[in-house]
Amino acid sequence: VEVKIEVVIPEKERSKEEMSPNGKASPLIYKVNGTARHYHLEEHPIASNPYHNPKDVVEASVCHVKDLENGQMREVDLGCGKALLIKESGEFHAVGHKCPHYGAPLVKGVLSKGRVRCPWHGACFNISTGDIEDFPGLDSLPRFQVKIEKEKVYIRASKQALQTQRRTKMMAKCISLSNYNLSSTNVLIIGAGAAGLVCAETLRQEGFSDRIVMCTMDRHLPYDRPKLSKSMDSHPEQIALRPKEFFCTYDIEVLTEMQVAAVDVKSKIAVFKDGFKMEYNKLLIATGNTPKTLSCKGKEMENVFNIRTPEDANRVVKLATSKNVVIVGASFLGMEVAAYLAERAHSVSLVELEHVPFKKFFGERVGRAVMKMFESNRVKFYMQTEVSELREQEGKLKEVVLKSGKVLRADVCVVGVGAVPATGFLKQSGINIDSKGFIVVNKMMQTNIPGVFAAGDAVTFPLALRNNKKVNVPHWQMAHMHGRIAALNMLAHGTEISTVPYLWTAMFGKSIRYAGHGEGFDDVVIQGDLDELKFVAFYTKSDEVVAVASMNYDPIVSKVAEVLAAGRTIRKRDVDAVVFLSFRTGDMSWLTGKGS
């Protein structure tokens, strides 16, 4: 038997005749009652011959058909690039071998029930289509066609697809409508983070061809916000999620440095701070969080930062080099900033109210292990205290005074003491907001107001993993999924959110990966060696595993995420078996079925 794999190239950009009337993102604003149009496959058929340039095609023999058993993956080399060959349920599939998010090798990920999950950050891809099914990341994998002939496996693929290892799904564009209105749009998205961008892209992927407007207080197009604390010297263009040309091509308009001051849900009008008003038909609120500030004397002085923008992060790195840095708050942001600056600054001091970092999230034992790693990298901790005063000299920060009486030399201070939902402008709107300021949504990301959706860090939603308990999950992956679910339900798909929270943090070249929702855990079962920073921690509540974290134990977190996604329950007594079966033997048969 011979296996051949043939790449399926996504459709080329549509002709200019199918673009907006002016051949680029239309500046015209359409009436709210403009109808949406859905493209069908027969309108834009995929070419029968996917290889537009025969010279761009490569074919190579990679293995014998019997070399792969069911449930196995293999990274195969074609000479000018690699592909991921998969065998599941007796069928062969082939897709790109790298996760489009940060380039993780998918062969080290988890294969389960028709999809492969990234070992680093949990993104999931359909092995038949290559489509992204869970996040983070925006692009799908290139898909390769598999043919079986004789007893050798051949792959025939486009060199370009092998090199890029990513595929942007086909999208619609705006169509011309006869009547224009310069102050209205069909879909208005407040916020241009992951949730807002994924919402806009999903609408276009689903064939929505009316006007989409995103507005943001930021001066930049959507960017990879987690890198602000993990890669602080990155410039905006380096961390942009999409280039400017992308938004022009697909008619997604972004209004930068525009702040919404109020929303009139009865009239369906958003009022901007400068007085401009925009009518909408569907609304997504994805405004995220606002960092908390210090309440002590001197909080407004120069060189005291909340890192919110690329400019903030760049400025901190410049000012901190060979200087004294004080970081207030052992949050994810605070710890990541401390790790990034440790080798650049003269000194890094971290002030925290708890007695160990990450105690509420990772537990005391893991927190102490992380703290020890930081101390071995010259980070000094001042725990169980807080800042009482910031002192200046000639208008610039000189010292940070703690309530314990300790005085720290400081040229730069970074504040990472948490955040509050950026929903103050909605107080008089009639949109349901809880006592902490979070927007309350259902499983379809709908608020209590018809046509108004919310997503991202500013919402609480029912988490299936925790028996539909209303939770807030302010993490990058979840914001992506929120945006997708909101878009599908704007189009009346009736899709409910069903995903396992997944996050990561990076410090000193090491990553902690985490899946689940461990809020309220009452015990932590640890396998491995905390001192060697090679461990997996299972967070349990009433004998049930509700979350898992690991360091240097890939891909255990992605495997547990797949177990939880399949609706299975892991009991505390099963932890030893889970680690043995998934990590040591690689056996994933225990994923099948439902229940415990």
Automatic annotation (TrEMBL):
<dbReference type="InterPro" id="IPR016156">
    <property type="entry name" value="FAD/NAD-linked_Rdtase_dimer_sf"/>
</dbReference>
<dbReference type="Pfam" id="PF14759">
    <property type="entry name" value="Reductase_C"/>
</dbReference>
<protein>
    <recommendedName>
        <fullName>Apoptosis-inducing factor 3</fullName>
    </recommendedName>
</protein>
<keyword id="KW-0813">Transport</keyword>
<dbReference type="GO" id="GO:0005739">
    <property type="term" value="C:mitochondrion"/>
</dbReference>
<dbReference type="GO" id="GO:0051537">
    <property type="term" value="F:2 iron, 2 sulfur cluster binding"/>
</dbReference>
<dbReference type="Pfam" id="PF00355">
    <property type="entry name" value="Rieske"/>
</dbReference>
<keyword id="KW-0274">FAD</keyword>
<keyword id="KW-0249">Electron transport</keyword>
<keyword id="KW-0053">Apoptosis</keyword>
<dbReference type="GO" id="GO:0046872">
    <property type="term" value="F:metal ion binding"/>
</dbReference>
<keyword id="KW-0479">Metal-binding</keyword>
<keyword id="KW-0411">Iron-sulfur</keyword>
<dbReference type="InterPro" id="IPR036188">
    <property type="entry name" value="FAD/NAD-bd_sf"/>
</dbReference>
<comment type="similarity">
    <text>Belongs to the FAD-dependent oxidoreductase family.</text>
</comment>
<feature type="domain" description="Rieske">
    <location>
        <begin position="60"/>
        <end position="155"/>
    </location>
</feature>
<dbReference type="GO" id="GO:0016651">
    <property type="term" value="F:oxidoreductase activity, acting on NAD(P)H"/>
</dbReference>
<dbReference type="InterPro" id="IPR036922">
    <property type="entry name" value="Rieske_2Fe-2S_sf"/>
</dbReference>
<keyword id="KW-0496">Mitochondrion</keyword>
<dbReference type="InterPro" id="IPR023753">
    <property type="entry name" value="FAD/NAD-binding_dom"/>
</dbReference>
<keyword id="KW-0408">Iron</keyword>
<dbReference type="InterPro" id="IPR050446">
    <property type="entry name" value="FAD-oxidoreductase/Apoptosis"/>
</dbReference>
<dbReference type="InterPro" id="IPR017941">
    <property type="entry name" value="Rieske_2Fe-2S"/>
</dbReference>
<dbReference type="GO" id="GO:0097194">
    <property type="term" value="P:execution phase of apoptosis"/>
</dbReference>
<keyword id="KW-0001">2Fe-2S</keyword>
<comment type="function">
    <text>Induces apoptosis through a caspase dependent pathway. Reduces mitochondrial membrane potential.</text>
</comment>
<keyword id="KW-0560">Oxidoreductase</keyword>
<keyword id="KW-0285">Flavoprotein</keyword>
<dbReference type="InterPro" id="IPR028202">
    <property type="entry name" value="Reductase_C"/>
</dbReference>
<dbReference type="Pfam" id="PF07992">
    <property type="entry name" value="Pyr_redox_2"/>
</dbReference>
